[in-house]
Amino acid sequence: MHFGRNRLFILITTSGLLFAIVLFSYTPWFSSSPMSETFVYFPEDDQLSFTQYETKINLLEIKDENEYYLSWDYQSTTDSSVYLRQDISLLFENGRLVDQQKIQEQHTDHLKGDGVYHGDDSGRHEAITFHYGEVHYPNDIIKSKKAMSSDILYVIDSPLSPLQTFREATSTIERKNKELLDSIIDQQLTYVWDGLMEEYNIDPDQYIKIPFNRLETYLHEPLPMLSKEQSSEIIGKLWEGLYRHYILGINTFNDKDYDPVGNSLPLILLHKGSSHLIVLYETADQTSQQLLQQIPPVTKSD
Question: Which strand (E) or helix (H) includes residue 147?
Fold first, then answer.
């Protein structure tokens, strides 16, 4: 099973870099501007609901012995037309960003997007989509609603059998192939994440590790040690920061543009004291990136 080139991660331990991280707080630093390259999260709207949302990856065509095309589709519907709808979909192959789609439309309740990805050799393909609706009320009140959907497709290219795809392993051979592929990918991601934590002098015992492809779980249950309301706001603001830096490709240290294709799957580190979270990832050229999000304390009313 061919997996691609070996990667060499160079560890640079520099304590001073901790103070150069990008801090994104709970006050947006840019205003909502439809059809522009921005995303701003606003407080949750309990009056709006997503009635349908999904993401799907399917085998579209086998080109030759080890080349293939995948279809990548996503859509979402709200129960009413809203001022602004946005869907942001990310496609990962073997723990690296390989493509992304962004759709924005005004005064609509439905969005639908699709893409085609050309792959070769065995791979784990994951698509993660953030669905978002923005509602404008009188007196400049703006609220929002969000959802996430995802899909995963394993492609197994073996010289001993035809190309195979599956979402969940059901046979012995599929389970063995899945375990092997997951093991290779997880080892590579762990190597990257451990190196980033060492570089930024982060004590892993002080944090709960949440890989980005597990974030969707916490739209249905609270983040550890936090309320459902806190979790909802934290995830919304997290996507705001990721959109600016991870998706648009803005270096977190010097604000220079770069191509985000090749970014590693982010690791979210939630501090056990619930004071902040850190997002770590590296770019295709192994440039380390770090985001810090503060979590404001809960104010108790008398």
Answer: strand 141-158
Distances (CA, A) of 245 to 127, 135, 220, 239, 260: 19, 25, 26, 10, 9
**Run of H or E including 182:** helix 172-199
Q: What is the 3-state secondary structure (H, E, C) of 200-258?
A: CCCCHHHEEEEEHHHHHHHHCCCCCCCCHHHHHHHHHHHHHHHHHHHHCCECCCCCCEC
Token code pair at residue 207: 């944090």
Strands 67-93 and 123-137 come out as antiparallel
Token readout for 227 is: 């309320």
Tell me the pTM.
0.86
| Torsion region of 91: left, alpha or beta (phi above 0 gives left; psi -120 to 50 gives alpha) | beta
pLDDT, one tens digit per residue, over 67-89 is: 899 999 999 999 999 999 999 99
Task: Give the pLDDT confidence of 128-181 residue by residue, as tens digits.
Answer: 999 999 999 999 999 999 999 999 999 998 887 888 999 999 999 999 999 999
Spatial contact of 85 and 104, defined as CB atoms under 8 Å apart: yes
Q: In whole angstroms, what is the distance from residue 291 CA to residue 278 CA?
A: 6
Contact between residue 99 and residue 74 where contact means Cβ atoms under 8 Å apart: no
CA distance 107 to 50: 15
